[in-house]
Structure prediction request, 353 residues.
Amino acid sequence: MPSIDELNSLLQEAKTKLAAATDEAGLRQVEIEYLGRQDGKLTQLLRGLADVPLEQRKIIGQRANEVKSALMAFLASRRQALGSSNVPLVDLTQPGTVPSEGHRHLVTQAIEEIAEIFTRIGFQRSYHPEVDWEHYAFAALNMPENHPARDEWETFFIDTEPLGKLGRRVLTPHTSNGQVREMEQQKQPMRMVNIGTCYRRQIDVSHTPMFHQFEGLLIDEGVTMSNLIGTLDYFVKAFYGPERKIRVRPFHFQFTEPSIEIDVSCGVCHGTGLLRQGFGGQACRMCKQGWVELGGAGMVHPNVLKAGKIDPKKYSGFAFGWGVERCFLMKAGLEIPDIRMLYSNDLRFLQQF
Ligand code: FA5
Prediction:
């Protein structure tokens, strides 16, 4: 059973020890010995308070509180006297810790660079849905119902049956869905660049199921194929530098006539078709004999202009749709041998750029 005398002598004993302590470690030891929450001597003494008759308990409890406060005040004054404190000292002369800095993802960096190049020559950035109706993704683009790209194996459909006259909803397999949407909104002449996410059932060294395209669309009076090739040439020189080689091949798209595809000399194998020694000297898997397809382009088909309520007798235009990731991988000096590395989320890879 605790008593007033016991409390007084405990206070005296603790004060003597605190007065004798010469550093923070010594003070801390006495603090734990008397005030420790589990086994401190004062704590232990107070545990016996329950057995004290009620009238005495009040008096002893009050004294216990006074002893505790006195001990803590004395401890604080000793800490001050010894120049120590519970708070760790901060050495202001130490160099600070620099927080690690992140950066934008490589694909975001590429998108910003591409947008900047096209806005320089008057194209306006526009945004269109990434889940869209079959109508905008295919039908309005002159793609008949039996076109292979409308097959379930290539495109991710949301609905199994058409929901109305615009058809089913799809995850856009290309940014060309923005063409007729833009025509419906804008007055002529117009120049848009629509950069968006696309989805296809494909995966290998040069394909990912989710990727990005940038879609250019220019409509005006008297637009020609040479305007198209001049614009693409401007982009390639701005993005890759003036020395890089590109080639233009005739191609077929339902929504452009005539249509072309554009290839760039492969940035992984430097156009040789062979990987360098460090990578095993084997055939480059990214390209076809030194060339990589960047995307398609052509003169907007009159049926597409009509779908966008534009008179094809008055207006003509060109369109192009290229892959952002592919274009980025072909930058000189990157030598990234597999497009999937961009989405592996491996910081050891991403931090190199
Ligand atoms: C198209 O998507 C057409 N809409 C392009 C177009 C627009 C033509 C306007 C004419 C006028 P294509 O399926 O070839 O075309 O894809 C274009 C580019 O997207 C490819 O050259 C490639 O760079 C990129 N691409 C296509 N599929 C993938 C994929 N799975 N992963 C990464 N990039 C891809």
